[in-house]
Amino acid sequence: MKAIRIHEFGGPEVMKIEEIEIPVPKADEILVKMFASGINPADYVVRQGGNVILKPFLKLPLGLGLDGAGTVEETGSDVSRFKKGDKVYGLPNFLNGTYAEFIAAKANQFAIMPNNVSFNEAGAIPSCALMAWDGTNLGKVNAGQKMLIHGAAGGIGSLALQFAKAKGAYVIGTASRYNFDFLKQLGADEVIDYKDENFGGLLAAIDVVFDASPVFNEGARMMMAAALKDYGRFVSVQLPHAFSEEFLGILTRKNAEAKMIRRELDIAQSLSDIAKLIEAGKVSIVISKVYPMGEVAEAHTALETKHVRGKIVLEIRKENESRNEAD
Ligand SMILES: NC(=O)c1ccc[n+]([C@@H]2O[C@H](COP(=O)([O-])OP(=O)(O)OC[C@H]3O[C@@H](n4cnc5c(N)ncnc54)[C@H](OP(=O)(O)O)[C@@H]3O)[C@@H](O)[C@H]2O)c1
């Protein structure tokens, strides 16, 4: 089978399509025939050699890709939740390498994908959606509360915005001006340009801040902390950038909480709950562009601009391959 792998760290050119053996699922695993994989920031961070958190885990050669969607090809002897042919989406163990025609992964890292989306759409959902899901849950955002989402037009931000709206929150999203209409279409109540140096001056009485930006900026973090209400919550995706003493001081004075998202949740249950929201039409996944496997370098280059709207996807097989098999 074909898989995209790296034998050295570096630029997009180090990714190569290789022929490797189809993996054999263990007792608690499923073999998934992959149709699409999401392209996520961790993919280019791993390709470049990692950051302070990831570096110790990276041993070459490596398969790339965090998440994806496909059909169940085979089930391990202990797996009863799925049968051959089920359409699933999931987030396998880190470094399992979803840019591949087949992957073997734990069954409890997958769920049945939403019935109203394509494989390309489903493949783009799991990693970002689980970050956004965990973030809105850790933020304990409720109906009527004011939630600020920083970086609301990106993969995580665009889903967090919709999850917060589905909970009835009042949502303020930050983005570049060209994304204002996009955020409003997703349901944002207010939009703010984070490039305005003093955007914090436009904010007050925020119950929950969700920092989903791919760019760390201590100044922006401090401005958003200043806008938090007493007993507010500040949630961040930026694990490599620990909260500073000064930042924590502001939160302590407000009796506010600060949390880094670690995505410690039940993956299968959360993906099933997310699928229900998508099937109910309350949340949609926005795909900017689909790239074939042969254009993975272009896909990474696009994501590394840090200005992709919604998601980009790696198409591993064409959708009609599954229809032909069903005929
Ligand atoms: N994706 C995952 O599953 C995952 C998992 C763990 C951690 N993370 C981390 O979470 C962060 C976000 O991930 P993502 O997948 O949502 O990234 P992404 O899709 O690449 O984010 C792109 C968005 O970021 C916005 N943006 C760019 N520069 C910004 C800035 N200086 N301030 C605020 N927003 C800015 C852009 O908005 P405009 O184009 O409107 O400027 C664009 O919409 C990354 O740092 C990633 O490492 C992600």
TrEMBL record:
GO terms for cellular component: cytoplasm. SMART domains: PKS_ER. It is found in: Cytoplasm. Residues 10-314 form the Enoyl reductase (ER) domain. The keyword Lipoprotein does not apply. GO terms for molecular function: oxidoreductase activity; RNA binding; zinc ion binding. It holds the Pfam family ADH_N. Its main location: cytoplasm. It comes from the Bacteria. Keywords: Cytoplasm, NADP, RNA-binding. CDD domains: MDR_like_2. Homotetramer. This is NADPH:quinone reductase.
